[in-house]
Fold this sequence. Notes:
By secondary structure, chain A is an all-alpha fold. Helix content of chain A is 77%, strand content 0%. Chain B starts with a helix and ends in a 13-residue tail after the last helix.
Amino acid sequence: MNSLLLVFVPLLGAVLAAFWPDNRSRPLLLPAVGLFHVAVAFGLLLTPVDIPPGAWIGYDSLARAVLPVVSLLFLLCAFYGVAYLRIRSERPNRAFVALLLAVLGLISAGHQACHLGLLWITTEAITLMVVPLIHFNGTARAIEATWKFLLVGGTGIALSLLGSFCLGYASIYGGGQGDLTFTALIAQGAGLSRPWVLTAWVLLLIGYGTKMGLAPMHTWKPDAYGEAPGIIGAMLACGVTTVAFTAILRVRAVVTAAGEGRVADHSLLAIGLFSMAVAALFLLGTRDFKRMLAYSSIEQMGILCLGAGLGATGAWAALFHVWSNSLTKGALFLCAGNMRRAAGTSAVDQASGLARLAPRSSAMFVAGVFAATACPPFAPFFSELRVLRAAFATGHIGTATIFLGCLLLAFFGITRLAFAVVDGRPRSARKTDRKRLAETAGVIIPPLMLLGLSLWLGLATPTFLTSAWTAAVAQIFSPK
Amino acid sequence: MSEPLNLLIGLAMGLNLLALGSSRLLAVIRAMSVQGMVLGVMPLMIVGLSGWNVLFVAVMTVVIKGFFIPGLLRRAMRAARITREVEPIIDFVPSLLLGAGGTVAAVALARVLPLLPEHAGTLLVPGALASVLTGFVLLIGRAKAISQVCGYLILENGIYLFGLLLLEATPVLVEFGVLLDLTVGIFVTGIIMDRIQRAFDSLDTRKLTVLRE
């Protein structure tokens, strides 16, 4: 099986969707491509392929460890999307379906990119493709969110290009021949010029950190997640951000090979803790349950960075957390989309009593909230526990304390908000629109399955995943 | 070879200051367009007419940065019927001081970074850093969407200047990335500005303040 299929089939699907004449049947392309993608991604997870040296793109260990969960999330979002676009049948969905498929193809390329330039181009393309998706609802608030996303995201992208150039110059200054694949850069190791490597690291961490939504470059995130449809929020929070995270992991391996691993680890720890702290404080204050998910996502990204800065065991835990966070947060975004439609708003002051308006979604939302705040037996509990253990094992007692404090604050903030909207009496006497309120199987089963997967991942982490994560850690920490 | 090149980079740095100090939007766009053309000539001066891809980069840069994008921005200006000029959040004199300070800092910073012998005599690194800083000042310090786009483009010009260091050694692909980014980025931005115009009836990003805590 060729891993390029993961890139080209979704892109072909996108072209097909762009020319598909019928608005009603077009969304079916989403699950069709999604099923194929899952089959190939998991097939390649179970039967790894060798990558020829010098290849620009390939399904290497890091891609194996992360891409399948994005694929799985996309499939379930795709089923949800069919039901969602049926509810929103008043809006044309041509651009929505085509761009969503293109984003899947580009995410697959980004995860598999073994070349500095290719990695940047895919991230850039994803950013541009996402812009109209955030704008789908077409409201004034959506336009504001889109503008901020474009400006902040565009600047982040520009800085990551500058960082890529600096890393390229580090290689050329050290006598490199202009081969910018990660294996070549790592092989050059101490031959890379250190001042340029450090400059590159700062710029790339800021640039890709903006895409990940790390504080203080997170400002676009609450707006975009708050205004975009739930399914786009899920793909942004759990698909696009993982590309930026693996990019940071790949660059970190180069920086470590150049002998500046300590600086890289310290900066990852610092930015991770700062993101967690900022997110925890904003979670205590926000008054909107979709924006709450964005702050929670910033916190999760902080946890990923923290894990990546804690050595091999920490990075293993971070890869585990990518999976548990994607499944759990995906379910939350889809439920929040249902609840927002039922309440007509996502502001806490106007939405209440959702347990009566949308009982199934609310129940899943509460379960998902407990899962996301690391309550056992869901997967985030186990992955965050591993991050914590890695912190203790490496002697980062202060880091572990702040980590726990932030988790506690976030727990208060998230549960406060969740129960405020779920409990109570439906406040508005607004006209009930049967079509919008209907909790059909199409919008209930996908989040339920995501929650189920999160539970399964926590209780019985399959060995093919743990060994994939181990292989990925080996690729980043002890490259050949 | 580096003397005329340095002259051009110095010109580009001067245009940065012009863009910072100008109160007329058209003047900012013109400064940016001239800067784009100046940047387009540079690959030919560094590498010479050695291959078709260098020529391609040069021609594309002049066409896109020098004509296409400025034209698009002028069109956006007409569409939005902007008669009032640049509205600064950071006033012109402080902007200029920031820009000048940034240029000095860029020269100082560039001395710390080691350069290959063939690049040692050029102003490429200070020029790149100064443009990036100018871009940031315009992005943060201007209220109108079009001024912010100009800031973003000057920032990109700085990155392009830096990319010239790698022109000989790495595939041209990296350069293509910049061009692709610019065209599509502006294209999308243009659509967005169109929408902002319709929704808010102005291009003032200060009105985009509904979403906050």
